[in-house]
Amino acid sequence: DELEREKEEALRPLTSGIMETGMDESGDYKRQVSNESLKDPQVQALSQQLKEWINDVLTDDHIVVKNLCEDLSDGQVLSALIEKLAGAKIEHKEVAQSIASQKAKLTEVLNQINYHLQVADDGIKWNVDNIHNKYLVSVLHLLVALARHYGIPRRLPSFVKIQVLQITKATQQTETISEQITGDEEREHYNFAARQQERDVFDTLFDSAPDKLNAVKGSLMAFANKQLAQINRGCSNIEEDFSNGVNLVVMMSLAEGYYVPMYSFSMEPEAYDHKLHNVTLALNLMQESGIPRPKCTAESIVSKDLKSTLRVLYAIYSKYKHLVK
What we know:
mainly alpha; 53% helix; 6% strand; elongated
Protein backbone atom coordinates (compact mmCIF):
# COMPACT_ATOMS: atom_id res chain seq x y z
CA ASP A 1 0.00 0.00 0.00
CA GLU A 2 0.95 3.68 0.00
CA LEU A 3 2.51 3.59 3.48
CA GLU A 4 4.74 0.64 2.59
CA ARG A 5 5.87 2.37 -0.62
CA GLU A 6 6.75 5.48 1.38
CA LYS A 7 8.69 3.41 3.89
CA GLU A 8 10.62 1.61 1.16
CA GLU A 9 11.50 4.94 -0.41
CA ALA A 10 12.63 6.32 2.94
CA LEU A 11 14.83 3.28 3.55
CA ARG A 12 16.74 3.63 0.29
CA PRO A 13 20.35 4.59 1.01
CA LEU A 14 21.34 8.18 0.33
CA THR A 15 23.21 8.32 -2.93
CA SER A 16 23.42 11.96 -3.91
CA GLY A 17 24.88 13.13 -0.63
CA ILE A 18 22.62 16.17 -0.71
CA MET A 19 20.57 16.64 2.46
CA GLU A 20 18.53 19.51 3.83
CA THR A 21 20.91 20.70 6.54
CA GLY A 22 19.92 24.22 7.49
CA MET A 23 22.08 26.65 9.45
CA ASP A 24 22.87 27.54 13.03
CA GLU A 25 22.60 31.30 13.41
CA SER A 26 22.68 31.51 17.20
CA GLY A 27 25.12 33.72 19.07
CA ASP A 28 27.97 35.51 17.34
CA TYR A 29 28.36 32.99 14.53
CA LYS A 30 26.64 31.42 11.59
CA ARG A 31 27.43 27.74 11.08
CA GLN A 32 26.74 25.48 8.12
CA VAL A 33 27.74 21.89 7.35
CA SER A 34 30.42 21.65 4.67
CA ASN A 35 29.65 19.97 1.34
CA GLU A 36 32.43 17.47 2.02
CA SER A 37 30.70 16.27 5.18
CA LEU A 38 27.37 15.96 3.39
CA LYS A 39 29.02 13.50 1.03
CA ASP A 40 30.91 11.68 3.79
CA PRO A 41 29.80 7.99 3.77
CA GLN A 42 30.00 7.87 7.58
CA VAL A 43 27.69 10.86 7.96
CA GLN A 44 25.28 9.39 5.43
CA ALA A 45 25.36 5.98 7.12
CA LEU A 46 24.65 7.52 10.53
CA SER A 47 21.75 9.57 9.13
CA GLN A 48 20.33 6.51 7.39
CA GLN A 49 20.52 4.29 10.48
CA LEU A 50 18.85 6.90 12.65
CA LYS A 51 16.12 7.38 10.07
CA GLU A 52 15.50 3.62 9.90
CA TRP A 53 15.39 3.44 13.69
CA ILE A 54 12.78 6.22 13.94
CA ASN A 55 10.65 4.56 11.25
CA ASP A 56 10.85 1.22 13.06
CA VAL A 57 9.82 2.80 16.38
CA LEU A 58 6.91 4.69 14.81
CA THR A 59 5.62 1.92 12.53
CA ASP A 60 2.38 1.54 14.49
CA ASP A 61 1.78 5.30 14.24
CA HIS A 62 1.99 5.14 10.42
CA ILE A 63 4.72 7.80 10.43
CA VAL A 64 7.45 7.60 7.79
CA VAL A 65 10.49 9.89 7.99
CA LYS A 66 12.17 10.56 4.67
CA ASN A 67 14.42 13.50 5.55
CA LEU A 68 15.70 13.83 9.11
CA CYS A 69 16.17 17.59 9.21
CA GLU A 70 13.02 18.45 7.30
CA ASP A 71 10.66 16.01 8.98
CA LEU A 72 11.77 16.70 12.55
CA SER A 73 11.77 20.49 12.29
CA ASP A 74 8.20 21.18 13.45
CA GLY A 75 8.30 18.86 16.49
CA GLN A 76 5.51 16.55 15.33
CA VAL A 77 7.69 13.48 14.69
CA LEU A 78 9.85 14.14 17.77
CA SER A 79 6.66 14.35 19.84
CA ALA A 80 5.51 10.94 18.62
CA LEU A 81 9.01 9.51 19.15
CA ILE A 82 9.43 10.57 22.79
CA GLU A 83 5.87 9.50 23.58
CA LYS A 84 6.64 6.05 22.20
CA LEU A 85 10.09 5.70 23.79
CA ALA A 86 9.42 7.19 27.23
CA GLY A 87 5.65 6.96 27.64
CA ALA A 88 5.62 10.75 27.85
CA LYS A 89 2.41 12.71 27.34
CA ILE A 90 2.58 15.75 25.08
CA GLU A 91 -0.46 17.95 25.60
CA HIS A 92 -0.69 19.69 22.21
CA LYS A 93 -0.69 17.11 19.43
CA GLU A 94 -2.29 19.19 16.69
CA VAL A 95 -0.19 19.98 13.63
CA ALA A 96 1.32 23.45 14.04
CA GLN A 97 1.13 25.66 10.94
CA SER A 98 2.74 29.01 11.79
CA ILE A 99 6.42 29.38 12.65
CA ALA A 100 5.50 30.66 16.12
CA SER A 101 3.24 27.69 16.86
CA GLN A 102 5.81 25.24 15.47
CA LYS A 103 8.48 26.68 17.77
CA ALA A 104 6.10 26.59 20.73
CA LYS A 105 5.37 22.94 19.98
CA LEU A 106 9.08 22.19 19.53
CA THR A 107 9.92 23.92 22.82
CA GLU A 108 7.47 21.69 24.68
CA VAL A 109 8.79 18.55 22.98
CA LEU A 110 12.48 19.35 23.55
CA ASN A 111 11.77 20.16 27.20
CA GLN A 112 10.27 16.69 27.54
CA ILE A 113 13.20 15.06 25.76
CA ASN A 114 15.80 16.90 27.84
CA TYR A 115 13.88 15.95 30.98
CA HIS A 116 13.90 12.25 30.11
CA LEU A 117 17.51 12.23 28.94
CA GLN A 118 18.60 14.03 32.14
CA VAL A 119 21.43 15.73 30.29
CA ALA A 120 23.25 18.52 32.10
CA ASP A 121 22.64 21.95 30.57
CA ASP A 122 26.21 22.17 29.29
CA GLY A 123 25.79 18.77 27.60
CA ILE A 124 22.78 19.77 25.49
CA LYS A 125 23.92 20.31 21.90
CA TRP A 126 20.56 21.22 20.37
CA ASN A 127 17.94 23.91 20.83
CA VAL A 128 14.61 24.99 19.37
CA ASP A 129 16.07 27.34 16.76
CA ASN A 130 18.64 24.84 15.48
CA ILE A 131 16.15 22.00 15.13
CA HIS A 132 13.56 24.29 13.53
CA ASN A 133 16.23 25.65 11.18
CA LYS A 134 17.01 22.05 10.15
CA TYR A 135 20.64 22.23 11.27
CA LEU A 136 22.01 18.72 10.68
CA VAL A 137 24.62 18.81 13.46
CA SER A 138 22.02 19.53 16.16
CA VAL A 139 19.56 17.00 14.74
CA LEU A 140 22.20 14.24 14.79
CA HIS A 141 23.37 15.12 18.31
CA LEU A 142 19.77 14.90 19.53
CA LEU A 143 18.99 11.60 17.82
CA VAL A 144 22.26 9.95 18.87
CA ALA A 145 21.51 10.93 22.49
CA LEU A 146 18.03 9.40 22.22
CA ALA A 147 19.34 6.26 20.52
CA ARG A 148 21.97 5.72 23.21
CA HIS A 149 19.56 6.35 26.06
CA TYR A 150 16.77 4.09 24.83
CA GLY A 151 18.89 1.56 22.99
CA ILE A 152 19.03 1.25 19.24
CA PRO A 153 19.12 -2.37 18.03
CA ARG A 154 21.95 -1.69 15.60
CA ARG A 155 25.40 -0.27 16.32
CA LEU A 156 25.87 3.27 15.05
CA PRO A 157 29.00 4.24 13.11
CA SER A 158 31.84 5.22 15.44
CA PHE A 159 33.81 8.48 15.54
CA VAL A 160 31.64 10.33 13.05
CA LYS A 161 32.77 13.94 12.63
CA ILE A 162 31.19 16.77 10.68
CA GLN A 163 33.16 19.69 9.29
CA VAL A 164 31.33 22.95 9.86
CA LEU A 165 31.92 26.32 8.23
CA GLN A 166 31.78 28.95 10.98
CA ILE A 167 31.34 32.60 10.01
CA THR A 168 31.84 35.37 12.55
CA LYS A 169 28.89 37.71 12.09
CA ALA A 170 30.76 40.88 13.01
CA THR A 171 33.80 40.38 10.76
CA GLN A 172 32.55 37.76 8.25
CA GLN A 173 35.73 35.81 9.00
CA THR A 174 35.34 32.13 8.07
CA GLU A 175 36.95 29.10 9.66
CA THR A 176 36.32 25.37 9.60
CA ILE A 177 35.59 23.60 12.87
CA SER A 178 35.03 19.92 13.56
CA GLU A 179 31.95 18.59 15.40
CA GLN A 180 32.26 15.12 16.97
CA ILE A 181 28.88 13.40 16.63
CA THR A 182 29.59 9.85 17.82
CA GLY A 183 32.34 8.22 19.86
CA ASP A 184 33.18 4.57 20.41
CA GLU A 185 29.72 3.28 19.55
CA GLU A 186 30.79 -0.35 19.75
CA ARG A 187 31.52 0.16 23.44
CA GLU A 188 28.33 2.22 23.92
CA HIS A 189 26.28 -0.53 22.28
CA TYR A 190 27.98 -3.24 24.33
CA ASN A 191 27.53 -1.32 27.59
CA PHE A 192 23.84 -0.78 26.94
CA ALA A 193 23.30 -4.45 26.08
CA ALA A 194 25.24 -5.49 29.18
CA ARG A 195 23.13 -3.24 31.40
CA GLN A 196 19.96 -4.68 29.94
CA GLN A 197 21.12 -8.27 30.46
CA GLU A 198 22.64 -7.80 33.90
CA ARG A 199 20.58 -9.63 36.49
CA ASP A 200 20.23 -8.58 40.08
CA VAL A 201 18.78 -10.03 43.27
CA PHE A 202 15.28 -8.95 42.32
CA ASP A 203 15.41 -10.78 38.99
CA THR A 204 16.37 -13.90 40.93
CA LEU A 205 13.71 -13.25 43.55
CA PHE A 206 10.92 -12.94 41.00
CA ASP A 207 12.09 -15.89 38.89
CA SER A 208 13.32 -18.40 41.46
CA ALA A 209 11.99 -17.46 44.89
CA PRO A 210 8.53 -15.91 44.55
CA ASP A 211 7.62 -17.40 47.91
CA LYS A 212 10.03 -14.94 49.56
CA LEU A 213 8.62 -11.92 47.73
CA ASN A 214 6.03 -11.02 50.36
CA ALA A 215 8.67 -11.11 53.09
CA VAL A 216 10.89 -8.68 51.17
CA LYS A 217 7.92 -6.41 50.44
CA GLY A 218 6.98 -6.47 54.12
CA SER A 219 10.48 -5.56 55.29
CA LEU A 220 10.80 -2.66 52.85
CA MET A 221 7.29 -1.46 53.66
CA ALA A 222 8.10 -1.50 57.39
CA PHE A 223 11.28 0.52 56.76
CA ALA A 224 9.41 3.05 54.63
CA ASN A 225 6.62 3.45 57.19
CA LYS A 226 9.09 4.10 60.01
CA GLN A 227 10.68 6.83 57.93
CA LEU A 228 7.40 8.38 56.79
CA ALA A 229 5.88 8.25 60.27
CA GLN A 230 8.15 11.14 61.25
CA ILE A 231 5.81 13.47 59.35
CA ASN A 232 2.62 11.47 59.86
CA ARG A 233 2.67 9.81 56.46
CA GLY A 234 2.49 6.10 55.67
CA CYS A 235 2.05 3.53 52.95
CA SER A 236 0.04 0.35 52.56
CA ASN A 237 0.40 -0.54 48.87
CA ILE A 238 3.99 -0.67 47.70
CA GLU A 239 3.28 -0.23 43.98
CA GLU A 240 0.60 2.44 44.38
CA ASP A 241 1.98 4.54 47.23
CA PHE A 242 5.37 5.28 45.62
CA SER A 243 4.25 5.70 42.01
CA ASN A 244 3.72 9.46 42.23
CA GLY A 245 7.18 10.05 43.75
CA VAL A 246 6.02 12.03 46.79
CA ASN A 247 6.96 9.43 49.40
CA LEU A 248 10.31 8.83 47.70
CA VAL A 249 11.17 12.55 47.81
CA VAL A 250 10.04 12.75 51.45
CA MET A 251 12.09 9.70 52.44
CA MET A 252 15.22 11.16 50.86
CA SER A 253 14.74 14.53 52.55
CA LEU A 254 14.21 12.86 55.95
CA ALA A 255 17.18 10.53 55.55
CA GLU A 256 19.55 13.28 54.43
CA GLY A 257 18.19 15.90 56.82
CA TYR A 258 17.35 18.63 54.33
CA TYR A 259 14.20 20.42 53.22
CA VAL A 260 12.96 20.02 49.66
CA PRO A 261 11.15 23.26 48.70
CA MET A 262 7.46 22.76 47.96
CA TYR A 263 7.79 24.57 44.63
CA SER A 264 10.29 21.99 43.36
CA PHE A 265 7.81 19.10 43.33
CA SER A 266 4.09 18.40 43.52
CA MET A 267 2.66 17.11 46.83
CA GLU A 268 -0.60 15.98 45.21
CA PRO A 269 0.28 15.12 41.60
CA GLU A 270 -2.54 14.06 39.31
CA ALA A 271 -1.02 14.45 35.85
CA TYR A 272 1.46 11.87 34.55
CA ASP A 273 4.10 14.54 33.93
CA HIS A 274 3.92 15.75 37.54
CA LYS A 275 4.33 12.22 38.85
CA LEU A 276 7.24 11.64 36.49
CA HIS A 277 8.87 14.88 37.65
CA ASN A 278 8.59 13.80 41.29
CA VAL A 279 10.08 10.36 40.68
CA THR A 280 12.90 11.80 38.58
CA LEU A 281 13.65 14.29 41.34
CA ALA A 282 13.79 11.45 43.88
CA LEU A 283 16.17 9.42 41.71
CA ASN A 284 18.38 12.49 41.28
CA LEU A 285 18.42 13.07 45.05
CA MET A 286 19.46 9.45 45.52
CA GLN A 287 22.35 9.85 43.10
CA GLU A 288 23.45 13.09 44.75
CA SER A 289 23.58 11.27 48.11
CA GLY A 290 25.87 8.62 46.65
CA ILE A 291 23.31 5.85 46.11
CA PRO A 292 24.08 3.92 42.91
CA ARG A 293 21.34 4.34 40.30
CA PRO A 294 18.90 1.41 40.64
CA LYS A 295 18.16 -0.74 37.61
CA CYS A 296 14.93 1.05 36.71
CA THR A 297 13.53 4.13 35.04
CA ALA A 298 11.35 6.89 36.41
CA GLU A 299 8.69 5.79 33.94
CA SER A 300 8.62 2.26 35.37
CA ILE A 301 8.01 3.59 38.89
CA VAL A 302 5.13 5.81 37.69
CA SER A 303 3.74 2.77 35.86
CA LYS A 304 3.66 0.93 39.21
CA ASP A 305 6.16 -1.74 38.21
CA LEU A 306 6.72 -3.75 41.38
CA LYS A 307 10.25 -4.90 40.61
CA SER A 308 11.41 -1.34 39.85
CA THR A 309 9.76 0.03 42.99
CA LEU A 310 11.40 -2.64 45.15
CA ARG A 311 14.79 -1.83 43.63
CA VAL A 312 14.44 1.85 44.55
CA LEU A 313 13.25 1.15 48.08
CA TYR A 314 16.01 -1.41 48.63
CA ALA A 315 18.62 1.09 47.44
CA ILE A 316 17.35 3.63 49.99
CA TYR A 317 17.13 0.96 52.69
CA SER A 318 20.70 -0.22 52.04
CA LYS A 319 22.09 3.22 52.79
CA TYR A 320 19.79 4.40 55.58
CA LYS A 321 18.73 1.24 57.45
CA HIS A 322 20.90 2.32 60.38
CA LEU A 323 18.61 5.32 60.89
CA VAL A 324 15.59 3.15 61.70
CA LYS A 325 15.58 1.33 65.04
